[in-house]
Amino acid sequence: MRFLCSLCQKEYPVETREFRCSCGGPFDLAWVPGGLSVSSLRDREPTLWRYREWIPVLEEDCIVSLREGFTPLVRYSYKGFRRLFLKLDYLCPTGSYKDRGASVLVSKLKELGIRRCVADSSGNAGAAIAAYAARAKIECTVYCPAHTSEGKLVQIRAYGAHLVKVPGTRADTAKAVQEETRRLYYASHNWNPFFLAGMKTLAFELGEQMGWQVPDAAVCPVGYGGIYLGLYLGFKELLNQGILKKMPRLIGVQSEAVSPLYQAFSREAIDVAPVPSRETLAEGIACVHPIRGRKILEIARETGGTFQIVSEEEILDGWRSLAQEGIYVEPTSAVVIKAIDGLEKKGLLNHDETIVLILTGIGLKATDTLGQYLRAV
Ligand SMILES: Cc1ncc(COP(=O)(O)O)c(C=O)c1O
Ligand SMILES: [Zn+2]
Known about the structure:
The chain is of the alpha/beta class. It has helices at about 100-110, 125-135, 150-160, 170-175, 195-200, 200-210, 225-240, 260-265, 295-305, 310-325, 330-345, 365-375, and strands spanning about 1-5, 10-15, 25-30, 75, 85-90, 115-120, 140-145, 160-165, 185, 215-220, 250-255, 305-310, 355-360. The protein has two domains: about 75-95 and about 195-375, 3-Layer(aba) Sandwich (Rossmann fold), CATH 3.40.50; about 100-195, 3-Layer(aba) Sandwich (Rossmann fold). Pyridoxal-5'-phosphate binds near residues 221, 285 and 360.
């Protein structure tokens, strides 16, 4: 098991304290997972650790788990879509899908003997890493934009992490944490490949819950691309193992206010350039320059996927449609609903296809914003 630079292919041991290659490129994980027969899954616990052989944590007693994953997959009737499913990944222990990555990354930190770490986050990843670090008795510092939803900031502090609020944008927070990464292990959900290794379990679960029949398309919010990349890596592994026969089209949704991937893909660019941005209700995907942007664009082309944007009004409309069906998510999650309307109009999705929408964060995280909105209507 080793890290490989995704730009220059230079090798690093996974024990390295560097979070990226000397050339600036992010690391990928080079590791061949063990074999796992899907028939043995029947008797396993309903957590993401049921895919044990496909998760790169070697020591059983280093696993740090709160029984995350194996979240419900439910049918959803919306407009003319006949086979639409919602993956309720906001039902993980800290209220967001980030628990997948956090459980695997913190387990690996335990295995590597790390005692102190730092992370930067729009809030949810910080809360997830703080929770799992607390469980592993690893000291944790989290940097967040000062304007992050109160629900997330309170949660991070409750788990006992040191919280540093950074004025300005998400990019300012990413810059501010750099100094700390010289002193503390950088438990970054965007740079560290072990976080992505946890995200792959989302694809494994969708495969299993759909009887190993892949959907035609999977639609998810995209900021730095953790869910998007995780889905790709997971489905790819299932293809490599001969368990699945095809890859779904992977469709990423961004807020119109911050849409670097949408813009780059529309221009048929190879790489993603930083873009001007505005404030958005979708705080979890307010990323102006995703560090694995080139790879994300490649995946969209390879899988026949695409990107879609939604306006602030559409985010709230989508949020309301979900809430009226008993599904309470935060605005970042709600971007996927109106996105499918737009994609259908462009002929990029059709009503007869099997489509899965990934719902990523629970509504209780954003009570302040959502309360203000409800008072105003
Ligand atoms: C609720 C929610 N959904 C989606 C995302 C986007 O995830 P990524 O940056 O991995 O693309 C985030 C990121 O923080 C989030 O908090
Ligand atoms: Zn490199």
